Amino acid sequence: DSKRRGRNSWQAFTPELAEQQLHRLQLETHLRRAVHNDEFHLVYQPQVDLSDGRVVAIEALIRWRNRSLGEMRPDRFIDHAETTGDIVGIGGWVLHEACRQLRAWRDEGLQIERVAVNVSYRQFLGDDLANNVGAALAEYGLPGSALELEFTERVLIEDAPDTVRTFTRLRELGVSLSIDDFGEGYSALNYLRRLPIHGLKLSQLFVQGVPDNQSDVAVCQAVTGIARSLGLGMVAEGVETERQRVFLRELGVLIGQGFLFAPGLAPDDLRDYCRAQKRL
Ligand code: C2E
Ligand code: MG
Ligand code: MG
Ligand code: MG
Hints:
This protein is α/β, with parallel strands linked by helices and 280 residues long. It is 50% helix and 18% strand. One magnesium ion (MG) is lined by residues 180-181, 201, 237. This is Diguanylate cyclase/phosphodiesterase (GGDEF & EAL domains) with PAS/PAC sensor(S). Residues 24-278 form the EAL domain.
């Protein structure tokens, strides 16, 4: 009897579940070897001055190209990598590659002030992050001011014992620290006062709706107000239209990134983009 029930329930939920698990297993198996097999690359999205379009920094965004799985955006694999722990190796690779590329650009005379790198929660545990950042900067002869780290509100909320020390060490290296997708997840207002943070990235979730959606307008105003009163810098994410640019600029947001200016670009295209900006 129990056997039959077991088999029935097995039949009831198997097809999707088995497929999902198989897929997950495949993904994780490939993910484990991806750094070693050199399957990742970075694209770079310009962060521009909202009043004149000048490139002030760039954000490195990871891409994964796997023979059997195809080309994947981070939303498909970063969470898995966080769960399995592979994110630590991947994150180390990203940091290294972004610094290497910035060094190469500087050596060919391209003036790019800063590259922003996304850092996941797991990378904040332990001492490795600050050590790795220090080592990468030293290896490529870059000052701390050449690097910005973007982390999510989860880092603030979980309040791991090492977080404050890690932030402090990063700050001592001269690295900028900002909170990505601000306002999306949790309310981290309390932590804003406690930690040495430089800036907030206004989530594209709210940028999308301005200037027409009144509640999105209200959130953008509130976040801008918080940033201003705490003396934090601000970058608006996901700027797609001229009307959004004008609205944000009038709100006092100085820097934005989004498809209105450029998507994430391959290194050569980013170089061309910066050169073209200069000639304007
Ligand atoms: P994010 O850091 O908030 O990056 C912004 C995402 O929005 C990027 O997606 C970018 O391509 C996209 N985007 C930029 N402008 C626009 C726009 O105008 N409209 C719209 N609709 N989207 C825009 P992407 O590259 O797929 O990255 C997704 C997320 O994956 C990132 O969000 C970040 O949280 C994470 N991620 C990316 N690279 C890394 C990495 O190297 N390490 C870690 N830990 N996470 C990463
Ligand atoms: Mg980011
Ligand atoms: Mg973001
Ligand atoms: Mg995001």
